[in-house]
Amino acid sequence: MNFLVEAIAAIGSAVLKAVALIGELTLFALSGLSHMVRPPYYPRLVLRSLMEIGFFSLPVVALTALFTGMVLALQSYTGFSRFDAESAIASVVVLSITRELGPVLAGLMVSGRAGAAMAAELGTMRVTDQIDALSTLSTDPMKYLVAPRLLASIIALPILVAIADILGVMGGFLVATEKLGFSADTYLINTFSNLRVEDVVSGLIKAAVFGFIIGLMGCFNGYRSKGGAQGVGAATTSAVVASSILILAMDYALTQVLFFK
Amino acid sequence: MTQPKIRIRGLKKSFGGKTVLDGVDLDIMPGTGTVVIGGSGTGKSVLIKSILGLVTPDAGIIEIDGEDVLKAPRARAKKLRAQIGMLFQNGALFDSLPVWENVAFGLLAERKVRRSGARAKAITVLAQVGLAENVANLSPSELSGGMQKRVALARAIASEPAIMFFDEPTTGLDPIMGAVIDELIVDCVRRLGSTSIAITHDMASAQRIADQAAMLYEGRICWSGPAAGLLTSTDAVVEQFTHGRAQGPIKMALRR
Q1: Does residue B139 sit in the same domain as residue B252?
Q2: In the beta sheet, which residues pair with residue B41?
Q3: How do residues A155-195 score in pLDDT, each as one tens digit?
Q4: The predicted structure's pLDDT at residue B170
Q5: Set of chain A residues whose Cβ sits within 8 Å of the Cβ of B89
Q6: What does the pLDDT look like over A26-63, one tens digit per residue?
Q7: Site from B52, B83, B88 to mutate, A interface, most A CB atoms within 10 angstroms
Q8: I need a surface site. Which of A60, A203, B39, B40 has the fewest CB within 10 A?
């Protein structure tokens, strides 16, 4: 009987902690968003974050997209050739990249690179009292640290995904024309004839949402970290794990909303 | 009768089930330097963080210039607290900014100087704490512990605050550098005519930088009086603490 009570108490405690965490995260997100639109603004910090999150993530996102497009073309060929449907490869590559793989893979890569860096930076600032110091210097840390990173993440991800889309399609094109013997003209015609504006736009919408998730989880976990180096490490891990899972979950939700109206 | 610059009554704060502050009463008179002493974990930092608004107390009154900052509207409380300059224990310098931007940070935030004039102002303040102009463009990580403390002090005094808090200002410094920092603190506080509160374990530092002293024990102020009387106090708690005796009323939580 005691065991049962203890088990229920443990479950109850875990549920209460989870609800409290969701509440805390929601308030943090709302506060961050409201600080994004209210002055004072810090354009220099937004630009710096754009460089950190966007520009410096470009190589890893570009390589990921390029190789993904190449692998996709190769795999599609080996699969579709069984059904004499090789002509569909161009459409499969471009639709997969623009609708799904571009935003999701870019999101996961940026989460691992920039999201982790955000959590580590803010976490270190927290445990070394730098965030408290901001408050004593008439500066709201949410406005100074969180809002610019959130805004930069929301702006940077769609730009990265647009570049990833182009490179992913280019990767597929290279494999199809150089290795599989497709005609360049035919491949390009097949690529663009089946591509609609909403395919690209839906990917960019996903990217903006994923950018918000990366910024939010990086800032949230870093901002509330405690306990020295170990706490900063834990915050960094939590930021990457949480944002990766949320990106995948939100990808499903957005696909449902955008394509099954 | 002169109104205290800071008046604290019945201040309480618990974390989880642990009571840290259990009804602190303290008056800080204008223009005086007060040192708060007490063992590790007795709530000294929580006390000053409560005044700064970094920690929200569970109960009590904190008045600055006669206004309760805990009940004042947010904007008013922010304005009252804006007159406080803080020197953090480890400096808490922003490592992403050069020294001069650290020093001028508060001035820029309060729009007291334009960005173009901020560097010159920062160099002037750095000179007041004995640092040369060539330090201005360095990163905080390139400085020694003593220099970092000076930069942190320069940042705290840059906006000429009416109230200054010092959290263990000499921790981690050698005795000579500790004495130099204390001298700078006394000099800055006198020059600005500020009211100051310091928390420290360092009895020599306490005597150098404060006129008044208060001892925090079991969540309350158990003794207060002139700082000069700290080492001659007959109060058993103060006597044990200031002389660093293992035996006495203060029981350390040791696991054996």
Answers
A1: no
A2: none
A3: 999 999 999 999 999 999 999 999 999 999 999 999 999 89
A4: 86
A5: 129
A6: 999 999 999 999 988 899 999 999 999 999 999 999 99
A7: B88
A8: B40
Q: What is the pLDDT of residue B256?
A: 47
- Is B86's Cβ below 8 Å from some Cβ in A? yes
Q: What is the ipTM of this complex?
A: 0.88
Contact A136 B84 (CB under 8 A): yes
Confidence tier at B254 by pLDDT (50, 70, 90): low
Q: Which are the contacts of B129, defined by CB distance < 8 A and separation ≥ 6?
A: B150, B151, B153, B154, B157, B184, B188
Residue B248 has a pLDDT of 77
Whether residues B76 and B95 fall in one domain: no
Contact B204, B176 (CB under 8 A): no
Q: Is B110 on the interface with A (CB under 8 A)?
A: yes
**Is B71 contained in some domain?**
yes
Q: What residue numbers bound the domain in which B207 lies?
A: 1-83+161-169+195-256
Note whether B146 and B215 are same-domain residues: no
User: Per the structure, how many domains does chain B have?
Assistant: 2
Task: Tell me which residue in A135, A137, A138 faces B54 most closely, judged by beta carbons.
Answer: A135
- The pLDDT tens digits for A84-103 are 787 889 999 999 999 999 99
Task: With CB atoms and an 8 Å threshold, state whether A130 touches B109.
Answer: no
Q: Do A137 and B95 touch (CB under 8 A)?
A: no
Using CB atoms, pick whichever of B53, B78, B88 lies closest to residue A133.
Answer: B88
Q: The CATH number of the domain where B74 resides is what?
A: 3.40.50.300
Query: Dihedrals φ, ψ of A174, to 5°?
Result: -60, -45
Do A154 and A52 contact (CB within 8 A), yes or no? no
Compute the average pLDDT of residues B59-85.
Answer: 92
CA dist A27 and A11 (Å) reads 24
Contact B89 A129 (CB under 8 A): yes
Query: Are B106 and A128 a contacting pair at CB < 8 A?
Result: no
CA-nearest of A144, A134, A154 to A42 is A144
| H helix or E strand, kind and range, residue B63 | strand B59-64
